[in-house]
Design a protein that fits this description.
With 577 residues, the chain is α+β, with helices and mostly antiparallel strands. The protein is 40% helix and 24% strand.
């Protein structure tokens, strides 16, 4: 026949009874193999066909041979391309070959009739049958029976397929739930670990236990270098170029499925180490580490689900490592802050707690550290009823090392001050003590002087410090530059030079560290010593304290408060009547 007659005809009760029994039978089971067998056996038995097969759509135009009877050159589970697809039931004749070229394969297998399996207008498969015994033509009732049976079969097959899809979806869901439970448990284990080494052990045990691989390498990027944190490969070290090349991964890769992803040297390395899978460890889309895994001990290949699980596990481990790093940094920061707090308290104890009242003189001093502790130092020591030692210094560096060297300097000065030696000789001794007890990269710029209130003189030595301003009452200014080299660089070769200046009422001496003159504004311009001199010359007040306040206010107005990189210290001495 060329087209099955679709005219509606009435079947006798005898002809309807087999359909009822067939419907009851195939609807009693959800086994697709049972249903397909019954469909073919019923068609072949009731309508006397010698052979038959059922094709079920897999995707697109690809159909799978789901069941075959009496056919030897088409195997079950074989796939056929059916394009274009039939829109109605047809017989196989030569005039159909051009329109349906795939019919040739069916005819060569002795198949002469096909009928579409359609549910709600959707083609889900094709029934193919061979010649009838005796090659009889279909009677009208047989045609109706044929079509009815195929329609009933299509509904049963569709129902079973939906059920299988639901079962598969449930299996996948169960698998996903199991994976999520595993990852949840792993996250709790990772979260309970506060040491990186312990976290690495947990990760390794997870790889061994859940995936059954005993060949692995885990590397994490630390700054610009890749550090191997765990490995069970027959090598001690992997090239940095290889590890950095692997860090270009953004998703799990099966090595054999990605022949052009990496450099040739990387593939040689992976082959030498028998690596099967590469799993990136990412944070916020950035690859920060990589896991290399060998074959599973069971021999089973890695599935897509395995890769997804490994990716989640690797990312979870990477996040935990980052949390541990941040936690350790926080602890270290807290420890340093506690140390700095103690050092700040000690350093504040080293500075004068109050400025002594000196007859006929005003004295003011102030320091602002760029950190909790700094390297600037000033001191005022009363030697006797008429002599006062004034000190200002700048220790190289900042923070705790500078503060410790400053404490060393203060102890040295306090030890030498009572001795009956000249200030020049004392400076040499200070230099030698600093040189003998510090490293070559530590030094101190240093200025000190002895104020004598009996003869109104200041005898000073400048050891490489910023030259203080000496401003006479008449407005003339000169710098106090007599002395020698900075402290702590080399042992004293020659005696330091000293100078004595006479202080009349109205004369002022301004001592300062380079944190004042080199304070930077937002344009990276220095405050400069000229600005210090201008403030000093334009100060209309008579007190040392007001001049000191004017200098600090000018510096703070000029400088960028977020860019203070050095301590700021100044000391002002003014003679009054």
């Amino acid at each position: 026949m060329s087209v099955v007659n679709q005219n509606t005809q009435t079947s006798s009760p005898f002809e309807l009874q087999p359909l009822v029994e067939f419907t009851r039978t195939i609807n009693s089971s959800f086994d697709i193999d049972f249903i397909l067998n019954n469909v073919l056996y019923t068609l072949m038995g009731k309508l006397r066909f010698t052979r038959g097969l059922i094709l079920l759509r897999e995707n697109g135009t690809t159909y799978r041979v789901a069941k075959a009877k009496g056919i030897h050159d088409i195997r079950e589970q074989e796939h056929l391309e059916i394009s274009p697809e039939p829109e109605m039931q047809i017989s196989i004749h030569s005039h159909d070959y051009q329109q349906f070229p795939w019919l040739t394969r069916l005819q060569n297998s002795g198949l002469t009739h096909i009928l579409d399996l359609t549910v709600r207008g959707k083609l889900i498969g094709i029934v193919c049958l061979g010649k009838r015994i005796g090659e009889q033509q279909f009677s009208p009732s047989e045609e109706i029976f044929f079509r009815s049976l195929v329609n009933i079969s299509a509904t049963a097959i569709e129902k079973t397929s939906i059920l299988e899809e639901l079962k598969e979806a449930n299996r996948n869901l169960d698998s996903r739930i199991q994976e999520l439970n595993t990852l949840f448990e792993m996250s709790k284990e990772f979260g309970a670990v506060i040491e990186r080494e312990q976290l690495i052990k947990v990760l390794v045990f997870s790889l061994l236990g859940h995936l059954g691989t005993n060949r692995y390498l885990i590397a994490v990027k630390e700054n610009d270098r890749c550090e191997v944190i765990a490995s069970r490969l027959p090598v001690k070290e992997v090239k940095q170029t290889v590890l950095h090349d692997l860090l270009r991964c953004i998703k799990p890769v099966i090595v054999t499925d990605s022949p052009d992803t990496f450099e040739p040297d990387t593939y040689r390395c992976l082959d030498d180490y028998a690596i099967s899978v590469i799993v990136p460890m990412t944070i916020q889309g950035v690859t920060r580490g990589v896991m290399l895994l060998g074959k599973r001990m069971t021999g089973a290949p890695y599935s897509e689900k395995d890769l997804e699980f490994l990716s989640s596990l690797g990312n979870l481990a990477m996040i935990s490592m980052e949390n541990i790093r941040l936690f350790e940094e926080t602890l270290e920061k807290q420890r340093l802050e506690e140390e700095l707090k103690i050092a700040h308290q000690i350093q504040q104890g080293l500075l004068p707690k109050s400025i002594p009242a000196i007859p006929r003189y005003q004295l003011a001093a102030k320091t602002i550290a760029s950190r909790q502790v700094g390297g600037d130092y000033f001191d005022i020591v009363q030697l006797d009823d008429h002599r006062y030692l004034l000190v200002i210094a700048d220790v190289s560096g900042k923070g705790t090392p500078a503060a410790l060297l400053m404490a060393n300097l203060q102890a040295t000065i306090r030890a030498l001050a009572p001795l009956d030696i000249t200030i020049a000789d004392a400076t040499g001794r200070v230099n030698d003590l600093i040189y003998d007890n510090t490293s070559a990269d530590n030094f101190i710029t240093f200025f000190w002087g002895i104020l004598n209130t009996e003869d109104n003189t200041l005898k000073y030595v400048n050891a490489g410090h910023n030259h203080p301003f000496y401003c006479k009452a008449d407005g003339t200014v000169r710098r106090l530059d007599k002395g020698g080299m900075i402290l702590g660089v080399v042992r004293s070769m020659i005696t330091y030079e000293h100078e004595i200046i006479h202080l009349d009422p109205g004369d002022t001496v301004v001592m300062f560290t380079d944190g004042v003159s080199e304070a930077m504004n937002a344009e990276n311009e220095e405050y400069s010593e000229e600005r210090i001199e201008n403030v000093m010359l334009h100060n209309e007040c008579e007190s040392a304290g007001s001049l000191l306040d004017d200098i600090f206010a000018s510096v703070q107005e000029f400088a960028d408060p977020d860019n203070q990189s050095d301590d700021i210290t100044a000391l002002v001495l003014k003679a009054v009547s």
